[in-house]
Batch of 4 targets.
Target 1
Amino acid sequence: MTTTAAQLTLARIRLNPASRHVHRDVRNPADMHRTVMNLIDRHDQNPTARHDANLLHRLEHNPDGATLLVQATAPLHLDRLPNGYALQAAQRDATPVLAWITTGRTVRYRIHTNPVTTTRNPQLLQKEADRRAEAAIKAGKSYTEATQIRDAFLDRVARHAAKRRGITLPATPDTITAWWTRTAESKGLRPDLVIDSPLPKIAARRTDSTATLTPVAFDGIATITDPDAVRTALTNGIGKGLAYGLGLLSLAPNTP
């Protein structure tokens, strides 16, 4: 996919707090995903339409209300938003940002993403199994149910170990900054300042299971080291959970 030639469109939608559709979408990221998907053309219900359009979105909560950002390399049809959904909606051509990205430029960045680590360390995995059991008890599960949850996780660990595969876990508070630093550097950004804030967990439903995403908001200042890598990250998104409002990277000049 050639990102430098892409026509990048960015929409900013100020949400109407009185709209029942807004309340539904804010409560359920899967519903928000469906609303956002309706803004692009889907020929023959193309199952890869989101990927093909590089469709990304991010919900931001501000003191004056909530704003939905939507970005794509395909036309966005804001007139398809539910009636009364937006107090204000506008879109602009963000393609010039791709040319603005140059080596050595210092930028402010923002992204919501899902930091994870993959490990085969037995001690860490046992600790995670115990944590899940404790969380189940705190959530009102019985001791028997909590034990079953722990054992099911350890069974999965054993199956993966037999295949020489690790287990993907949420990054811990003491590894989140390091995770973002590694990730950002691999995308052409050298973080000079990292501010992380936890976000509500997301239940990502799959065909036959549900995965829990533990997203984090990252804000800060960075220096561009690889413009092509940054352009790709800006256009395609970063990490997993793109359909659930994660991965949209925003850049702005770092002005005093």
Target 2
Amino acid sequence: MEARRPEATGEPTDGRPRGGQGQIVAAVAVGGGIGAAARYGVSLLWPVAAHDFPWPTLAVNALGCAVIGVFMVLITHVWAAHRLVRPFFGTGVLGGFTTFSTYAVDIERLASGGHARTALAYLALTLLVALAAVGSAAWTTRRLVMWRRSS
């Protein structure tokens, strides 16, 4: 029996999976649109005046970081996820949902509006909350996964 040549079957000859980067870019783009739409929905449901503390942005970033902590543990230790799941959900949906660009704009808005202390507090608080959220969510998820496996 003759061996199949990749170029004869239309398969890539350089070892890359079929679909290449185009599918990944599309997954990130679609996921990003979904995440950004969800974040926009939060801003409609929870509007903030220019001089107020940006609680919605802090909450969105904390929630998004917690979800990414859970998600990464699950797809690396529990499920064999399709190769497009991580780019779609992790980079796309959660990347579009969390908003560190709005965080930066909020800091500038507070500082230029005469609320420098609030801006600095928000800068530090968001960083601490985001790191705590992803770390504690990942830690908790790992413990739950290990507990379920040992039961």
Target 3
Amino acid sequence: MTDELIHAVTLADTPEKMVAAVQNLAAAEDIAVIPTLIAVFGYNNPAAAAVAVTALTAMGEIAVPQLLSEIDDYNYGARAYSIRTLAAIADPRALDVLITAAATDFAPSVRRAAAKGLGNLNWHQLNSPHRETAQQKTLETLLLISQDLEWSIRYAAVVGLQALAQIPDLQQPIQARLQQMLVTDQEKAIRARVQLAIA
């Protein structure tokens, strides 16, 4: 049955058929469909990719190892969907991938998804002192990209920093940076988002 659903995705010859096939595949809720759902990210069909993101996010932690191993180095659109899914699942095993993507990926969509996801990881899944080390690395990355030349990256960094500020030990440096941005950032949208984060 699962094989038929997977086959239907490969046979879909219109965008509409592709979306329907991916919806049917997602409804199977079978871990065997994870690689096919990830492959959909590369098909240049945003509606189908959105269904795949939702399905993989719902599967949660079980999808993480394959998401991590099958990140597309060549197709930045596919990579953005993978990063968005990993960010939504919030499994700390994705930390290094999210940090690298947020700091160095050439595609702004990938960097924004990673930056927003970094602040929201399920830190309780890490043991101390790994947790503190991971949180510190995350803070350093978000502080770095809050100075990016691309305004949308700085905006995403603010979203990530606001989420990370839930951790008491990190509140002081985050608040200091946000106050600084409120005074120095030229972009009105960012100053407004910083005000929201501070409030």
Target 4
Amino acid sequence: MFEIYKFEYDCQFITKEELHSYIGRCDLSQDEYNEIVGEAYVASQSQPEQPQA
């Protein structure tokens, strides 16, 4: 599966976020993810909602 995921990522069929979601449930390891994208996964940090004044 590694080769398929690498091909899909290289051809921009899937994003880093989609690829990361495959870890653990689609036979992709964290190390394989890192090798495919060339970096460790860093979750995007969303800004907490500000209360309305």
